[in-house]
Design brief:
Layout lengths: L2 E6 L13 H11 L7 E7 L5 E7 L2 H4 L13 E7 L15 E6 L2 H10 L10 H14 L8 H14 L2 E9 L3 E6 L8 E6 L7 E6 L2 H5 L4 E5 L4 E6 L5 E4 L11 H6 L5 E2 L2 E2 H26 L3 E4 L5 H11 L7 E3 L12 H11 E3 L8 E6 L6 H12 L4 E6 L27 H8 L3 E4 L2 H9 L13 H4 L10 H15 L5 E3 L3 E4 L2 E4 L4 E3 L8 H6 L23
Parallel strand pairs: 15-18, 18-19, 19-20
Antiparallel strand pairs: 1-4, 1-9, 2-3, 2-4, 5-6, 6-7, 7-11, 8-9, 8-10, 11-12, 13-14, 16-17, 21-24, 22-23
Helix pairs in contact: 3-4, 4-5, 8-9, 8-13, 10-11
Length: 560
């Protein structure tokens, strides 16, 4: 899961005394998508002569951009932005690319092999974003042209789609030419386009792409539309957007986890209001609670309490449907990360109590019904139940707006390996015992899908990507992929803290991507040289260092 942005201003100006500042709007938009990635972020802009400027680094937007001070270093009338949550790859600013990618490629080993042996392109990180960028750049290179046109771009994308498999929503910048956005043929990951009048040039229009509509709406963009499955849009500077069906849609199946957890409630994805879908999840969950527990048990419940903030809407619906008191029993500390998307399990465990605290008067002597969006590893749920009991709750019933998660997510969300999922091999009674609750109730999968499908507009999605709940994915999954995924996760955890690779030899820039002249690397860590080749081949470790492609303004001393 990542957040992506792309922007091209209608006022294209290269006056150094009055530069067009696409970076100002991109920087502002990052904060509306910060929930989608807290590991790293960056902005790349293009100014006079096709020169690219970038600022990126590990951490949240306020840190990377020094509370906005860095924006002045990014001139240009077009640019892209990226908020990274690590899925495939490592936790490194080298993987927050000037090619903004949200999703995951499930045939990454095959692509890496092709780029190495056929295209002869050096891959500098473990990021599948870099793989996709290089496949696209190689297809553009096959045109043999010094300057490509819009048709060349769409044709190159079509060939890239034939090679890549998975789910993605991407923004890219063709230096000096325009901004590109495209979405996978199943519509798994979201992408929207909006427009508004230029603030500086009457009659001109600005166009912006984003993962969520809220980022566009808050910046004054209107006529917001979804990029459809298999569709691409290219906005050349000074011109209107050109849409092209790069590949025929294979489905229209957005990832339902966007509605359950990831997206903001004030976002609309594929014509479906996230807020309204969560309301329906709550109503259907309430019916399931009544069916399983019966009226006598429900009469014993003193309060419905949401686990803030994603489940607030659903919990209110549960309360309304069951005729129970609704109260805010937990206070959320707004100055900590979302614990689910913290990259390490230890950080997640410590982060739960840092993020939430119980209001004792709302729990003392009460039977409480806690409502959360989902239960993944059970780490957070167990801590929350413990906090409720410490605050004096006499009974704790735990309800999940999502069904049991029993399979890995393969399209850009690093949920967990199957062995880490609390619902793997357990029924709801065993799970209740594991988290020390009296009862655990899950939403039915059909009800979850209906909560979204019932709100879908004409021509919108009626099916959704729900593989994490049933193991049936909308795309074909290559043989051995799950084993590869588990090996990648396990080996990285074992070695990431001990290995460091540094580059030797010069690099060059091709289409915004770094390519090594000789592709060599030398080990610098505590591991023996004999261990490194296989680990690098398998993606077990990756270079822990700054990106060495485009000059990164974040590495310079701050301007004050």
């Amino acid at each position: 899961m990542c957040g992506v942005l792309g922007l091209i201003l209608g006022h294209v100006g290269d006056d150094p005394d009055a530069p067009c500042k696409a970076a100002v709007a991109l920087h502002e938009a990052l904060y509306f998508l910060q929930h989608r990635g807290q590991d790293a972020c960056g902005i790349a802009t293009c100014a006079a002569g096709g020169r690219i400027y970038q600022c990126k680094g590990n951490g949240m937007a306020a840190k990377v951009f020094a509370d906005g001070m860095r924006v002045q270093d990014l001139p240009g009338s077009m640019g892209i932005g990226h908020l990274r949550y690590p899925t495939a790859g490592t936790s490194s600013n080298a993987e927050s690319q000037p090619f903004a990618h949200n999703g995951n490629l499930i045939n990454a080993p095959e692509l890496r092999q092709h780029l190495d042996t056929v295209a002869h392109r050096h891959i500098n990180t473990d990021s599948d974003s870099e793989l996709m960028l290089n496949v696209f750049a190689n297809e553009l290179n096959e045109t043999g042209k010094a300057r490509v046109n819009t048709d060349d771009i769409f044709n190159a994308l079509g060939r890239m789609y034939e090679r890549c498999s998975g789910g993605w929503a991407c923004t890219a910048m063709i230096a000096g030419f325009g901004v590109l956005g495209f979405r996978d043929s199943y519509g798994i990951r979201p992408l929207v386009l909006g427009e508004k009048e230029s603030d500086t040039l009457p009659g001109a229009r600005d166009y912006m792409l984003a993962s969520e509509s809220i980022a566009l709406r808050q910046l004054g963009f209107t006529n917001i539309r979804d990029i459809l499955p298999g569709q691409a849009v290219f906005i050349q500077k000074g011109r209107a957007p050109v849409f092209h069906q790069v590949q025929e849609p294979k489905a229209y199946s957005p990832d339902i986890f966007e509605y359950v957890y990831f997206a903001r409630p004030d976002t609309v994805i594929d014509g479906i209001s996230v807020h309204a879908s969560r309301q329906r999840m709550g109503y259907k969950l309430a019916d399931k609670i009544r069916e399983l527990l019966g009226d006598e048990v429900i009469k014993d419940i003193d309060a419905v309490i949401p686990i803030p903030e994603t489940s607030n809407t659903s919990a209110a619906s549960v309360s309304e449907r069951l005729g129970l008191k609704f109260c805010q029993g937990f206070v959320k500390n707004r100055y900590v990360f979302r614990t689910f998307i913290m990259p390490q399990q230890g950080a997640r465990q410590k982060g739960v109590r840092r993020k939430l605290s119980a209001i004792q008067t709302e729990f003392e002597g009460r039977c409480v019904l806690l409502v959360d969006d989902s239960i993944v590893r059970g780490t957070t749920s167990k801590e929350i139940v413990a906090m409720a009991r410490e605050a004096g709750a006499r009974k704790v019933i735990f309800a999940s707006c999502a069904p049991p998660i029993t399979a890995p997510h393969i399209y850009g969300i690093d949920l967990a390996s199957p062995t880490e999922l609390i619902a793997s091999g357990k029924d709801r009674f065993a799970i209740a015992k594991s988290i020390d609750a009296e009862e655990v109730i899950y939403q039915d999968l059909d009800d979850l899908k209906a909560s979204c499908a019932e709100l879908s507009p004409p021509g919108g999605p009626t099916e959704f990507e729900v593989g994490v709940f049933c193991g049936k994915y909308v795309t074909p999954v290559p043989e051995g992929y799950f084993e590869h995924l588990n090996q990648l996760r396990g080996t990285k955890r074992k070695y990431a803290a001990h290995a460091q690779i540094s580059s030797s030899g010069p690099t060059i820039i091709v289409g915004g991507s770094q390519v090594g002249i000789n592709g060599s690397a030398s080990p610098v860590g505590t591991l023996g040289a004999k261990d490194l080749p296989e680990m690098l081949r398998n993606g077990a470790i990756s270079p822990v260092r700054d990106d060495i492609s485009i000059h990164n303004l974040a590495n310079e001393p701050e301007r004050r």
